[in-house]
Specification:
The complex is a heterodimer of chains A (283) and B (440).
Chain A lengths: L1 H18 L27 H13 L34 H8 L2 E5 L6 E5 L13 H7 L11 H4 L3 H10 L15 E3 L21 E3 L20 H16 L3 H29 L6
Antiparallel strand pairs in A: 1-2, 3-4
Chain B lengths: L12 H7 L4 H9 L3 E3 L8 H22 L7 H10 L4 H28 L8 H23 L4 H13 L7 H9 L6 H32 L15 E3 H26 L29 H9 L3 H21 L11 H22 L14 E2 L2 E2 L3 H26 L21 H6 L6
Antiparallel strand pairs in B: 1-2, 3-4
Helix pairs in contact in B: 3-5, 3-9, 3-10, 4-5, 5-6, 5-10, 6-7, 6-9, 6-12, 11-12, 11-13, 11-14, 12-14, 13-14
The chains are: A mainly alpha (283), B mainly alpha (440).
Chain lengths: 283, 440
């Protein structure tokens, strides 16, 4: 019977292997593997890291990128950057309220019907930096900064990819002609063969990205005294974006552990029952 | 539905009263309690129960998801994220539903390979097999339309590619695609009808499943020997014997299911589907879900679009014709050593097709090796590998199975399930295979 189950497992494994999607032509560099605190079945978000990541997001990324699926209250949700057990309803979390109040959002005055500006509340969504896509493109040399809400799930490699991209900028290799307003990044998907004057068999990995290198040493000042190196900032903001994309990840893994224990016990009991029921029957 | 004399005896006044008006308890008793089951069924036979569970899980989670989902091109993507973020346990329900589709297909493929290996499609089970093929077709349609609903990049462009296949048909092609789209491109009307049909088809599947079980209970279950049960010694009552074994297998299957849902919920999906649909930006590679990859590979293996579409549908049509393509009198491949070998190659060919479907056609199979160009591509390319595998796929159904049944040398088939062939060394193969179809 064990043999049969190993066959089932092998078949399932093979099916999974065949499902692995193809890599792009022009193959970007494989993202660097980061040992995230949330990796593995028991991994958790590091709250201090999420707070630092939020700071990088707010002071750097949010100048151009929206994260329109997030509300301020999410920051105070369980496993979130500003979760406080004293405030199970994150709308009441004073830290979250204070963060929200730093923003002005447009609203309709119920007396006059005029559009007015008011301070955001914890129930409001993160305001977007541009009123529409055209404004965003106009301010960014024609490129559209993607919404960051689910970015960590919308890219192969997830947080590893974001970290690698942010730290991966370097001079374009000699022989590569690129638009001076654009930037070479070996981790960004693309096809550089038309811009490459060198050996056609050795087209450089990666692509050309509109975003200039957004992070540098001491781009932000961390409140917890952590040294704000480029590497640290990139790690923190990538972790923050992973949380933003999958805020229920820790809850999911914790529940999974209980479910698996339950299923293992149930399988054991069912197997014992099966042996008992069949004990006098040949088969 | 049980196909055997009823032994149900109502014990209380109420059940007697009910039994003479609507014998539904009798139906359940005869079908799932007293129903005689071959005693030698192995774990490959537990996938019927696993599939019933999959269907139930998909319908239950799907109904809840539909309560929170908005079928509108402008709102669908964010409504799915609303489910993931704001609905209580919405992430759990959605991940169960999304991974449940893959689990459903893993189980159905194992179920089909089992039927193929043990000859479960042969008389008197042709209708049973064809109903199964109908369920499989409905499953593919349902899964495809379900994948479109989140309205991500892969949803949208997958829908464009698949609906455009019908455009390859001569004369009527263009009219059919316009009709499918509800317009002149994949857009809001397409999303709305896909949602409507995605909700309808599972109930049609449930209906055909009832017919499938009915046909199963009329013909009786096949078993690993392929010999029909002849006496009571060959069978055991469905409950508790089969139910407990199915229960154990279902529980083990749920462990695999849970590992995906809780620890790798997006492993079987595609990252691009977390980017909202944009008709003006085509993803670098449009890849269908893994369970369609073998058919996608067959489609791309043929250089001509129309012929490719016909080959893809032909691959499924072969399954429908299978009961009449296999000429062997011996049902189970356990006693057909040559067929067993060809069957194993067939399984490998299907997996290779799946692999080819995920790769770029022109990419080399062995990296860095250049051979010579044949027709349109280097011989060392996935498109050529898929051509070889597709050729075997069709060859297996259209050449190997019809001819093999007439020429192969089979092993002696046991007299009955309870008395395996080994205890009757006197039986010559010819004698044993002469009447394996006798129904007990």
């Amino acid at each position: 019977m064990l043999r049969k189950f190993s066959i089932i497992a092998a078949v399932a494994g093979l099916l999974v292997a065949t499902a692995a999607p193809a890599l792009a032509a022009g193959h970007p560099e494989e993202p660097k593997k980061v040992d995230w605190s949330f990796n593995g079945p028991f991994g958790k978000f590091d709250q201090a890291q999420l707070q630092r990541g939020y700071k990088v997001y707010r002071e750097v990324c949010s100048a151009c990128h929206a994260a329109s699926l997030l509300s301020f209250r999410n920051l105070g949700d369980k496993n979130g950057p500003f979760y406080d057990a004293k405030y199970p309803n994150s709308n009441n979390n004073p830290y979250v309220k204070a963060i929200a109040a730093e923003y002005q959002v447009s609203s309709i005055d119920e007396e006059t019907g005029d559009t007015v500006q008011r301070p955001a509340t914890s129930a409001d969504r993160f305001p977007s930096p541009f009123p529409n896509e055209y404004a965003a493109r106009a301010s960014n040399g024609g490129a559209l900064p993607p919404d960051l809400s689910v970015l960590a799930k919308a890219r192969e490699g997830g947080p590893d990819y974001i970290y690698s991209l942010l730290t991966g900028y370097h001079e374009a290799p000699a022989g590569l002609t690129i638009d001076p307003t654009k930037h070479y990044n070996p981790y960004f998907p693309g096809d550089l063969s038309s811009a490459w004057s060198g050996d056609p068999k050795h087209v450089p990995h990666g692509g050309v990205i509109g975003m200039p290198p957004p992070l540098a040493d001491d781009r932000v000042t961390y409140d917890d005294g952590t040294k704000a190196t480029l590497d640290q900032e990139a790690k923190d903001v990538s972790a923050f974006l992973m949380w933003a994309a999958e805020p229920k990840m820790i809850e999911r893994k914790e529940m999974g552990f209980s479910v698996l224990i339950y299923l293992l016990l149930m399988s054991g009991l069912l197997y014992a029952s099966y042996r008992t029921v069949w004990r006098n029957e040949s088969h | 539905m049980s196909g055997h004399p009823s032994t149900y005896e109502p014990k209380t006044a109420f059940t007697r009263w009910l039994d003479s008006r609507l014998p539904i308890v009798r139906l359940g008793y005869d079908s799932f309690v007293d129903y005689p089951t071959p005693r030698n069924l192995n774990y490959w036979w537990t996938f019927g129960a696993i599939l019933s569970l999959c269907l139930g899980v998909q319908i239950a989670t799907g109904v809840v998801l539909a309560m929170h989902y908005t079928a509108n091109a402008g709102l669908a993507f964010n409504s799915v994220e609303h489910i993931m973020r704001d609905v209580q346990y919405g992430w759990l329900i959605r991940y169960i539903h999304a991974n449940g589709a893959s689990m459903f297909f893993i189980a159905v493929y194992i179920h089909m390979f089992r039927g193929l290996y043990y000859g479960s499609y042969k008389a008197p089970r042709e209708i049973l097999w064809i109903l199964g093929c109908v369920i499989y077709l409905l499953m593919m349609a349902t899964a495809f339309m379900g994948y479109v609903l989140p309205w991500g990049q892969m949803s949208f462009h997958g829908a464009v590619v698949i609906t455009n296949l019908f455009g390859a048909l001569p004369i009527v092609g263009q009219a059919i695609t316009t009709w499918l789209w509800g317009g002149f491109a994949v857009d809001n009307p397409t999303l709305n009808r896909f949602f409507s049909l995605h909700y309808l088809l599972p109930f049609m599947i449930a209906g055909v499943v009832i017919l499938h079980i009915w046909a199963l209970h009329v013909a009786g279950q096949n078993n690993p020997t392929g010999v029909e049960p002849k006496s009571k010694a060959d069978t055991v009552p469905f409950t508790p014997y089969a139910t407990i074994k199915d229960g154990f297998a279902v529980s083990v299957f749920l462990i695999l299911f849970a590992i995906f849902v809780f620890y790798m919920p997006n492993a079987l999906g595609h990252a691009d589907n977390y980017i909202p649909a944009d008709p003006l930006v085509t993803p670098a590679h449009i890849v269908p879900e893994w369970y369609f990859l073998p058919f996608y590979a067959i489609l791309r293996a043929v250089p001509d679009k129309l012929m490719g579409v016909l080959a893809m549908f032909g691959a499924i049509a072969c399954l429908f014709a299978l009961p009449w393509l296999d000429t062997s009198k011996v049902r189970s491949m356990r006693y057909r050593p040559t067929a067993k070998l060809y069957f194993l190659i067939f399984v490998v060919a299907c997996c290779i097709l799946g692999l080819c479907g995920a790769k770029l056609p022109d990419d080399p199979v062995i990296p860095g090796l250049k051979t010579f160009t044949l027709i349109d591509s280097d011989l060392n390319s996935f498109v050529w590998l898929s051509r070889i595998a597709a050729l075997y796929y069709f060859g297996f159904f259209l050449v190997i199975l019809p001819i093999l049944g007439l020429v192969e040398k089979t092993l002696p088939v046991p007299d009955s399930i309870a008395k395996p062939a080994l205890s009757h060394p006197a039986h010559a193969p010819a004698e044993a295979t002469a009447s394996p179809e006798t129904k007990g």
